[in-house]
Design goal:
There is one protein chain. The chain has 2 domains: about 5-55, Orthogonal Bundle (Arc Repressor Mutant, subunit A); about 60-195, Orthogonal Bundle (Tetracycline Repressor, domain 2), CATH 1.10.357. It is about 75% helix and about 0% strand. The chain contains 10 helices and no strands. α4 (about 55-80) runs antiparallel to α5 (about 85-105).
């Protein structure tokens, strides 16, 4: 009879992250202790601490995973076909939709996002740069194919990100939804207004 396969450290880390996220969604971040996560997994809290030094470290790992999913979405849009203006619209819609579906509507997860933003975690900063980089890539394509004027794509991407922050920041997305604003429509209208300044006139 074969012995059961041993669980790798990476597999255990993944199980801890998955279980913690499920508990945060069910109980809320503040009400979930490391002991609760350990109990759900059938292990001791000390064993959880072997893989994560604190509850915040677990939250950061969840944040990295979630933002990795969003990064894949924006890269897929950046590399897709279509006009540069249309791709930018789809990119910002993708970011907005992700925050709405995964953070804003999941009220118990929202405080996790606030912690990550308030503490300027490396994962948050890296994600912001990923989105800015994909915006820059699309702008470069638009300049190269004659759709946009020959603006500085890096600086313009920074300005675009600042102008569109209301549709990219989870807290601002939550505020807009609470005010019953059609954020998808406003995102498209705002972007269109901004792009009028760089669309090449024939």
């Amino acid at each position: 009879m074969n012995a059961p396969a041993r669980t790798t450290a990476e597999e255990t880390r993944a199980r801890i992250i998955e279980t913690a996220e499920a508990l945060f969604r069910r109980l809320g971040f503040a009400k979930t202790a490391v002991a609760d996560i350990a109990g759900e997994l059938g292990m001791s809290p000390a064993n959880v601490y072997r893989f994560f030094p604190s509850k915040h470290a677990i939250v950061e790992a969840i944040c990295v995973r979630c933002l990795g999913e969003l990064d894949e979405t924006v890269w897929a849009v950046a590399r897709s076909r279509g006009s540069a203006a249309n791709r930018l619209d789809r990119l910002f819609h993708g970011v907005l939709r992700y925050h709405r579906d995964n953070f804003v509507e999941e009220k118990r997860v929202h405080d996790i996002v606030l912690i990550a933003i308030d503490e300027d975690w490396d994962a948050i900063m890296a994600h912001k740069e990923t989105v800015r980089t994909t915006v820059e890539l699309i702008l470069r394509d638009g300049i190269d194919n004659g759709e946009f004027e020959a603006v500085d794509p890096k600086e313009t991407s920074r300005l675009l990100m600042r102008a569109m922050v209301g549709f990219c920041h989870p807290v601002l997305v939550a505020k807009g939804m609470a005010e019953d604003i059609d954020l998808m429509a406003e995102s498209s209208a705002t972007l269109q207004l901004i792009l009028q300044g760089i669309i090449k006139r024939t």
